[in-house]
From TrEMBL:
The keyword Zinc does not apply. It comes from Asanoa iriomotensis. It is a multi-pass membrane protein. This is ABC3 transporter permease C-terminal domain-containing protein. Residues 1-32 form the signal peptide. The keyword Transmembrane applies. Belongs to the ABC-4 integral membrane protein family. Keywords: Cell membrane, Membrane, Signal, Transmembrane, Transmembrane helix. Residues 888-1007 form the ABC3 transporter permease C-terminal domain. It is found in: Cell membrane. The chain crosses the membrane at residues 270-293, 317-339, 359-379, 400-420, 440-462, 496-514, 885-907, 937-963, 983-1002. InterPro entries: ABC3_permease_C, Macrolide_Exporter_MacB. It holds the Pfam family FtsX.
Length: 1014
């Protein structure tokens, strides 16, 4: 029996090989599904963790500590407790010990935290020495400017250090504010409105003896945590740790638990959606194999009829006929499974073992092959039960009846139900904080629509073809007549048309969906990054960043200085380079980036510059005295402070060194402090005890006025006429202490300071517009329209703005934000400080050594990001992962339908060749014979191709809504079009090429007499 089956397969090689290849494809794709789920869920977890902000990967444990529990080892013990309780691998655990207090300055004070954070000296850039002894502190650069201190100065701090001042051992700048170490930065400086904390040793906090302190321990998971531990296991560890530590007085805050749950839910999206595509693939596989076997059985009808005439039993006939299909299918299933297993993905979702994943692959391949054999048995059943006379006919009958209509009706009803489910899902507004889960019927809606429209089209093809054939015969157009008659009389045409239409539809839907998802990820990445690449940097000041970037790229072709304040929703850019560097979109304020940049940079007064190694100030204070300092910005952005000392009495010259101004400096401001002010003092004399209180000079009435007449250097300067021009001077912008009174006389600028304890001592050069032009996006535009608009351009610096345009979003900082010019905002701020996030945006044309060039100008690069890398991380999220499998399944469906087409064409090749040979002897031309040989099923493929493309449009635009591009439903930018002509036509062309090749190969080469070649 087996030998008979093998000889039968050898005699009909083409259908047998086709069945084998179709089963290899089907079983291989089915076996790959569990492996794909395991690999993609693991990649998703890793990508989500790496892309998550540091604060989202952390667990915070907060506890109050009173005076009784103050010990130097309090922080280290708490770190050990938290680490042991959580018990996850590769955690970075650091403790932050905080004291709420204030720096005392005479009768004034500044609220400021005194903080110890373990290991902080390794994470900051120090100008001085790391605090190591009790009473030593490190002060942030901005705080040092605010307090007017430097390394070696002393500060009084309450509580604990009113009478024994703290020593400033260093001024610090955070090296990498985005590193895992600074996960608790928001807890330390949550509002960013208060000065940065004073960093110190634990012994300093213990010696202060505060009534209460706060201890925060943050445990930060590395980006590879979820590659080692399943998300639910991470969640359980965090919950258990919160319960244990809660009993010891800690208050837990667990963003890591939320992240783990979100990652697990995204993994479930893959587990939920990939089987949908697998079900579609299996159904398609069985239908395609059913058609292939059924029409392949036409070649065996005569053999079955002869067996019946000779009295063969039903079981023997079933074995002989089904074996010719089952044997290639079994071999194909084994080969398909063997091709997938070497690509083992390993551990799957929820810690599923690699063995379980492999068993699921074997089970999927087995189900595929068993279903294929059952489909073959059903296809052979009609031939086994048919009478001998029907089996001996050369032309098979067409089957009609209520069963076919019932199947078509069920498909149409299911398609309508799926369409309603998809439309209902898409029309529901998402509830904040929740995720909607669509039904399987909604996810199957495109496939159901494709099959339903396919069967409807199939019912139309036959009568239309018959009518076209009759008209062509009457008109004498034999080629058209033979082709149309072929379509009308062949029983395979209706079901084959439906199968091909469904395959083309699903393939076009998958290709366009993949295109849209890829573009969505790229557009989101471009919005969140801003330029081809972004370097995260540290610099002495915003001006230094601007100067360094312009020095490195003097032509403005590839680099742009940027300060991003994501908390405040402000993006400050060097607008002179905006059009050449940024990835611009019309939603950012207009299609023309150069025009937007021009609106951000109004014409401003010329800066006041002076150069020389010594500067001379001509000033007078007739009725008192005041200490005067000038702040200048060097050409490289460095801050130069010249202390002219005390000005008193009649007009006189005060000359001081100006280190850094030999090449020229821009005058920024004057600081005028009256005699009543109490300033920090330097180290006490040797005769004074180290813990003695600072020297405080006796208070005198503040002077009524200080007159400035000239500021000169070796070259240039500010003359008396400029000092006497009131339009060139201003006080601080925004809310704050009462400013000094400013007036002018022909002799120069007159400044009358207020009370030292509650006034702003600064007067600035007014070389900026009255209001800062800004592009406002989202609700910020509405806010500004309803009030006197101010923005926090930089931490602690509020400036008035004028809205120069509206936008849907701003790159990097999101929807509700503003875009401003960095240089103009820096001039208006006047503090010459830094910002929340200093960055350099660069194009792909930037030199490879850009970081080294910036370092040569005092700008240090500590991190970077690119649009390509961010887009790649989005491609590993749940929706793109499921869509990739959908695309793979759809491609396999096209090949399956093409295989079914090939089997049908090959089976009908011989009888069709005989018919055409007879017609050739009766006078049919060779050209008409060739057209008839190839034209029939090519026309079927063409009709299905056109119908599939047209069906893909509603299937993609209306019914594919349940698959969102991002799990978080990000919508800062409008979604790209669901269908682009290019990818749609490319998919159609690929399917057309496959169908044409299959028909050409399966039809054979016609002989000159019209028959078919061997």
């Amino acid at each position: 029996m087996f030998g008979l089956i093998v000889r039968a397969l050898a005699s009909r090689r083409a259908p047998s090989i086709t069945l084998f290849l179709l089963t290899v494809l089907s079983a291989g794709a089915a076996a790959a599904a569990p492996q794909y789920i395991a690999a993609s869920t693991r990649d998703l977890a890793s990508a989500s963790a790496q892309a998550a902000p540091v604060a989202d990967r952390a667990v915070f444990m907060r506890r109050g500590i009173d005076t009784r529990d103050l010990r130097p080892d309090t922080v280290s013990q708490a770190e050990q407790e938290v680490s042991a309780a959580i018990g996850l691998p590769a955690l970075s655990v650091h403790g932050t010990w905080m004291v709420n207090g204030s720096v005392v300055r005479g009768r004034d004070s500044n609220t400021m935290l005194l903080v110890h954070r373990s290991g902080f000296c390794a994470e900051v850039v120090l100008d001085g020495t790391c605090p190591s002894r009790p009473g030593e502190i490190a002060v942030n650069e901005a705080t040092a400017r605010l307090l007017g201190v430097k390394a070696g100065d002393r500060l009084r701090y309450a509580p604990g250090y009113e009478q024994r001042p703290l020593t400033v051992s260093a001024v610090y700048r955070i090296a990498d504010p985005y590193s895992d170490y600074w996960a608790a930065a928001r807890l330390v400086d949550a509002s960013r409105a208060q000065p940065a904390p004073l960093l110190t040793t634990p012994e300093t906090i213990v010696a202060a003896q505060p009534q209460t302190t706060t201890l925060v321990v943050d445990a930060v998971a590395g980006g590879d945590l979820f590659a080692r531990t399943a998300p639910l296991a991470v969640r359980d560890h965090v919950i258990d740790a919160g319960r244990q530590l809660g009993q010891r007085g800690f208050e837990p805050e667990t963003p890591l638990r939320v992240l783990a749950v979100n990652i697990y839910n995204s993994q479930l999206d893959i587990v939920y959606a990939v089987p949908i595509s697998l079900v579609e693939l299996l159904a398609f596989c069985w239908i395609a194999l059913f058609l292939a076997v059924r029409h392949g059985a036409l070649e065996r009808h005569r053999d079955i009829g002869l067996l019946k005439l000779r009295g063969a039993g039903r079981a023997r006939m079933l074995t002989l006929t089904l074996g010719q299909s089952a044997l290639p299918m079994l071999a194909g299933g084994l080969v398909g499974l063997a091709a997938v297993l070497p690509l083992r993905a390993g551990t799957g979702i929820g810690g599923m073992s690699a063995t379980t994943t492999d068993l699921l692959s074997v089970a999927a391949a087995t189900v595929t092959v068993v279903g294929a054999i059952l489909a073959a048995a059903i296809a052979e059943r009609r031939a086994l039960s048919a009478p001998v006379g029907l089996l001996m006919r050369a032309v098979p009958p067409r089957h009609v009846g209520w069963r076919y209509g019932a199947v078509d009706g069920v498909l149409v009803i299911l398609a309508l139900a799926g369409a309603y489910e998809a439309w209902s899902y898409a029309s529901r507004a998402p509830v904040a904080g929740t995720t909607q889960q669509s039904t399987w019927l909604a996810l199957l809606a495109p496939a159901l629509l494709a099959f339903a429209l396919g069967v409807v089209l199939a019912r139309v093809v036959v009568p239309v073809a018959a009518r076209v054939g009759r008209r062509a015969l009457r008109a004498g157009r034999l080629g058209v007549a033979f082709t149309a008659t072929e379509l009308a009389r062949r029983p395979a045409v209706p079901r084959l048309t439906a199968l091909l239409t469904a395959a083309v539809t699903l393939f076009c839907v998958a290709v366009t969906t993949s295109d849209t998802t890829t573009r969505s990820g790229a557009e989101r990445a471009a919005n969140e990054i801003g330029a081809d690449q972004v370097l995260l940097v540290t610099a002495p000041s915003r001006g230094a960043l601007l100067a360094a970037t312009r020095a490195v790229d003097q032509q403005g072709r590839f680099a742009m200085a940027v300060v991003a304040s994501e908390d405040a929703g402000v993006l400050a850019v060097d607008a002179t380079r905006l059009a050449t560097v940024a990835r611009w979109r019309g939603e950012y304020g207009g299609a023309d980036a150069a025009a937007v940049a021009a609106r951000l940079r109004p014409e401003a007064p010329a800066p006041l510059t002076v150069s020389g190694e010594r500067l001379t100030l001509t000033a007078a204070a007739p009725r008192g005295s005041a200490t005067v300092k000038a702040t200048l910005a060097a050409a490289g952005g460095a801050v130069v402070t010249v202390d002219f000392g005390r000005v008193s009495g009649a007009r006189a010259d005060y000359s001081r060194p100006a280190e850094g101004c030999a090449a020229g400096c821009r005058l920024v401001s004057f600081e005028i402090v009256g005699k009543g002010a109490v300033r920090p003092v330097a180290e006490p004399p040797a005769t004074q005890p180290p813990d003695a209180a600072p020297t405080v000079e006796p208070e005198y009435p503040a002077p009524d006025a200080v007159l400035f007449s000239a500021l000169r250097g070796a070259d240039g300067g500010v003359d008396q006429a400029t000092f006497a021009d009131r339009s060139r001077w201003r006080t601080a912008v925004g809310a704050g202490p009462a400013p000094a009174a400013v007036s002018v006389t022909p002799q120069g600028l007159v400044i009358t300071p207020g009370r030292p304890v509650d006034s702003d001592p600064y007067v600035f050069v007014d070389d900026s517009p009255e209001r800062l032009p800004a592009i406002a996006a989202g609700v910020r535009g509405a806010e500004f329209a309803a009030s006197d608009p101010h923005v926090l351009a930089f931490p602690g610096i509020a400036v008035p703005i004028s809205v120069a345009g509206a936008a849907r979003a701003v790159p990097r900082v999101g929807r509700d934000a503003v875009l401003i010019d960095l240089e103009t905002a820096d001039l208006m701020g006047g503090d010459l400080g830094g910002g929340e996030s200093l960055q350099v945006w660069a194009t792909d044309a930037a030199p490879a050594d850009l970081a080294e060039r910036l370092a040569d100008h005092g700008v240090t690069v500590f991190g970077s990001g690119t649009i390509a890398a961010r887009a790649e991380s989005y491609s590993r999220q749940a929706p793109p992962s499921t869509i990739r499998f959908q695309l793979l399944a759809a491609a396999v469906m096209v090949l399956l339908s093409a295989g079914a087409l090939g089997v049908i064409v090959a089976v009908e090749r011989r009888p069709r060749g005989g018919e055409l040979a007879s017609l050739r002897h009766q006078g049919l031309t060779a050209r008409t014979a060739r057209r008839a040989m190839f034209g029939g099923y090519l026309m079927v493929a063409t009709v299905a191709l056109v119908a599939g493309v047209l069906t893909a449009l509603p299937a993609r635009t209306i019914l594919a809504a349940p698959l969102s591009a991002f799990p978080d439903r990000w919508d800062v930018l409008p979604a790209p079009p669901a269908v682009r002509p290019g990818p749609l036509l490319l998919a159609a062309a690929a399917a057309a090429l496959v169908f044409a090749l299959v028909v050409a190969l399966a039809s054979g080469r016609p002989r000159r007499d019209g028959g078919e070649s061997a």
